[in-house]
Design a protein that fits this description.
heterodimer; A: alpha+beta; 5-stranded antiparallel beta sheet; elongated; B: mainly alpha; MetI-like fold; 0% strand; flat
Chain lengths: 365, 301
């Protein structure tokens, strides 16, 4: 079966400025693709190119196996939800949802049937005669989704749909979008700058920076095996600890030496690791650093470090220590006895470690 | 002792500030009242004079109320006063002005809306340059274009006709109307046009179904502005019309200037009020939207 969306060698320039450089992505039917990156990375532009709202400079876009590169947005069999919702302010909710069908000349009976179906699905039946100005943020969001759903398209496009609503509602709507994706089995492309949204929703993530794809993969791949320092730092909260270290070959394994202020260097031995250059950056997620005794495994190594800051967060307690000139965050259990200024035994799970080259930022293992 | 002082001080303080606040308020009202009287004085003189007989004007004082109210002057101004050799009053010219102003206002508003929509929402290469040039058009003095425009109207075969005058007013109105609509439409998020595109609506469909219904406040502003400009215009009216197509402003001038013998001030005043009534009417009817429209966009709905 051919991919539902295929972006081939896409290039987009604004005058002399390159916004997107040689983008290649494809997704299968039913995939939830999330485009994530910092602001200005080109993710919204890429979505607009897929929608046909921005002309592209080079490359091809195929949707449902058809080359849609020069096809106008209305004929691409897509539906889109916008960041500002873009509801038509003078039309009622019902008219907003049926406007597209009216333009396409769908008969009144079908319009009414589809409207009723979508309104039921999104539980917006009581709102149908209101204007967008009379709705709350969450309700507007639902109407915007209704307008997309009623189209029953091959591909749904979402442009940061949750960034305008408050934190609590955002989590609710996130779950709702996920449920919708599950229930419809629809294919979706979703743009966000929020890496948690990306992790929770996606079946496939594209991390963008400066118009270049940094990594494509499942959320687990992106999280556990980031391709470079940017992805490692961008995905995950708190961010992955990136600690400069010196590597020395020692028999079957590698000795890793991490400098510390006013203390002897910390030395780990990685027996499974690859051949490393002399200088490396060692990446460890906060949850891969635990209090000694709370983490067991073949690659766990313990060491005593001076606790700098303790931040209780309810379910977990984050503890900051200084290693290699960097602040390193460990995610400990809630009842930890860690005290600022006191030493504590930590367990480092080197089975989960990522190595990066400091000059190129690329992953080494 | 200190308790006593503490308890009286604040009350006397508030009393004093209350007093000064009230005094200030009254000063403001008096000042506003004086200015209002000052501005209303000419209108008062016009209305009272138009209701007096010529006899009373000659003998009475300028600001006194009419002893005996008569509408003869109004009747004469409307249908009997002489403009040059013709003595039919303002009536035919008033009708000319309506025939001129209504289509000119509608057309210039429509073109302004379309231009503003294109410039604000369909960013194309050179959009800003075109907008700047149109703005520049707002500030070209009318006198500069009289001769070239006369030539153009001649070539088009519209010289001395009402359609010719409509053409001139539409051309000179477009600068302002475009400015109004462009500034209104830039506050509308671009995503609205994108959503309409995905829904399959084209350029004009989006304009009619989505932008026009949004535009009531700015349409009112534009209509008031254009109507006032076109109705009150004298220069184009006197330059590009001929006998039979002159607008009411030109006729008013002729009435005032072509009296023979005794000067009929009451007729002049009545004619002037008649000529000014339509703009007054438009402002009274739509005035509350005018302010609202001018400030619209600063607050998002």
């Amino acid at each position: 079966m051919s991919p539902i969306l295929e972006v081939k060698n896409l290039v987009k320039n604004y005058g002399a400025v390159e916004i997107l450089k040689n983008i290649n992505v494809s997704i299968e039917s039913g995939d939830f693709l999330v485009l994530v990156g910092p602001s200005g990375c080109g993710k919204s532009t890429l979505l607009n190119c897929i929608a046909g709202l921005e002309p592209i400079t080079g490359g091809e876009i195929h949707i449902g196996g058809r080359n849609m590169t020069d096809v106008s947005p209305k004929d691409r069999d897509i539906a889109m939800v916008f960041q500002s919702y873009a509801l038509y302010p003078t039309m009622t909710v019902a008219k907003n949802i049926t406007f597209g069908m009216k333009v396409r000349g769908v008969d009144k009976m079908t319009q009414a049937a589809k409207l009723a179906e979508v309104a039921k699905q999104l539980q917006i039946e009581p709102l149908l005669n209101r204007r967008p100005g009379q709705l709350s943020g969450g309700q507007r969001q639902r109407v915007a989704m209704g307008r997309a759903l009623v189209r029953d398209p091959k591909l749904f496009l979402f442009d940061e749909p949750l960034s305008n609503i408050d934190a609590k509602l955002r989590v609710e709507m996130r779950t709702e979008i996920k449920r919708l994706h599950h229930d419809l089995g629809a294919s979706m492309v979703y743009v966000t700058h929020d890496q948690i949204e990306a992790m929770t929703l996606a079946t496939k993530i594209v991390v963008l920076k400066g118009g270049v794809i940094q990594q494509i993969g499942t959320p687990a791949e992106i999280y556990n095996r980031p391709e470079n320092l940017f992805v490692a730092d961008f995905m995950g909260s708190p961010a992955m600890n990136l600690i400069p270290a010196k590597a020395r070959k020692n028999g079957a394994g590698t000795k890793l030496e991490i400098a510390r202020e006013n203390e002897v260097p910390l030395i780990f031995t990685d027996t499974a690791g690859p051949d490393l250059p002399d200088d490396v950056i060692l990446g460890l997620r906060p949850e891969d650093i635990a209090e000694a005794g709370f983490r067991a495994g073949q690659h766990v190594q313990t060491a005593e470090c001076l606790v700098d800051i303790v931040e209780p967060a309810g379910a977990d307690t984050f503890v900051v220590v200084r290693l290699g000139g960097k602040e390193v965050t460990a995610r400990l259990h809630a009842e930890t006895q860690a005290k600022p200024g006191k030493p504590l035994q930590f367990a480092f799970d080197l089975g989960k470690v990522s190595y990066f080259a400091p000059e190129t930022g690329q992953r080494l293992n | 002792m200190s308790d006593f002082a503490a308890s009286t001080d604040p009350t006397s303080l508030t009393k004093q500030s209350n007093f000064s606040r009230i005094a200030l308020r009254w000063l403001l009202y008096v000042l506003l009242g004086v200015f209002a009287l000052y501005y209303l004085m000419p209108l008062f003189v016009m209305v009272t004079t138009s209701l007096k007989s010529l006899e009373e004007i000659r003998t009475g004082s300028l600001v006194s109320l009419p002893r005996e109210i008569t509408f003869d002057a109004w009747a004469t101004a409307w249908s009997g006063a002489c403009t040059g050799i013709q003595c039919e009053g303002l009536k035919p010219f008033f009708w000319n002005s309506i025939q001129l102003a209504v289509p000119a206002v509608i057309l210039s508003t429509l073109f302004g809306a379309l231009n503003g929509y294109v410039i604000a929402q369909w960013q194309f290469r050179g959009a800003n340059l075109i907008f700047s040039l149109m703005l520049f058009g707002c500030f070209i003095p009318f006198q500069v274009v009289l001769l070239p425009m006369a030539r153009v109207l001649g070539i088009m075969g519209l010289a001395g006709t009402i359609p010719g005058l409509i053409f001139v007013h539409v051309i000179y109105g477009i600068g302002f109307t475009t400015l109004f609509f462009r500034n209104y439409y830039v506050t509308v998020p671009h995503e609205l046009v994108k959503a309409a595109k995905v829904d399959g609506a084209g350029f004009f469909r989006t304009f009619w179904s989505i932008f026009m219904p949004l535009s009531l406040p700015i349409i009112v502003v534009t209509v008031i502005w254009q109507f006032t400009q076109i109705w009150n215009d004298f220069l184009f009216g006197v330059s590009f019309s001929q006998a039979g197509t002159q607008p009411v402003t030109v006729a008013l001038n002729n009435i005032v200037n072509s009296t023979t013998g005794v000067k009929e001030y009451n007729v002049d005043m009545a004619a002037a009020i008649i000529a000014a009534l339509p703009t007054l009417f438009v402002y009274v009817v739509a005035g509350k939207y005018f302010i609202r429209g001018l400030t619209a966009g600063s607050v998002k709905g």
